[in-house]
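Worked example 2:
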Amino acid sequence: MLDYVSAIEEMSLGAKLKALRESKKLTQQHVAEHLKGLNLGKSKQMISLYESNTNIPPISVLASLAKLYETSLDDLIEERNGALQAQEHKPLYKIADYKRVEDSYKHNVQADSNLIYEKSSYIPFYDVEVTAGKIEVFFDESDNPAGYIYAPEFAGCIACKVWGDSMYDRILPGATVFIYPIESKKYFDYGQIYMVAYPGHRVLKYIQPCEGDESKVMLVSENKRQPPYPVEKNDIQRVFLVKGYWNQTTN
């Protein structure tokens, strides 16, 4: 038993969460349903991202998992703090670690580090999350970017992360999206994917017309388990067209 505890203590946060879950003979689906019952709204895919160290869970999730796994919350928070510190010292992205998915055509995108590229080929990356939930900070691309990604095919765009499963299984949790600012909030190319910011929310959705009411649009998810809902055009603060995205791949 002591050997098992010692092994757990030496694991990364993700590996520790996986080992604790397996020790309770729980599946990722069981854990996801447990969190959903607490109104934390996490999917099986998100649990997988936590356990693979792709995403660092918030403290609210760790608190629930600590109770479920009957382990110390303080230990999990300490591991989380270490993971956050390590993340700050990693390169922003390695292009070879990502796969671009566009119009159902998939191919690897590689960057040759020995070549010198034009400045416009580097896309600013902003450390904000596009989700289907509430946010505290409104996205402003005038802020200093966290770094740059080489992606000449998306010149003029900005990049950010996607969490949540509203666009599953087209755009996956953890994907990098390349978005282009749209000035008009009155006329949209219906059927396209947009990042829409309105009071308290920043979401990735299809925009469709609202039948019988031109003052509103319908925000529609790829995930059919999430019903569409209307938003007043006047409430939309910012809108960005999704020009493309890279779904993160794991080996």
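Confidence is low (pLDDT under 50) at residues 1-6, 88-117, 132-138. Residues 73-88 form the longest helix (16 residues).
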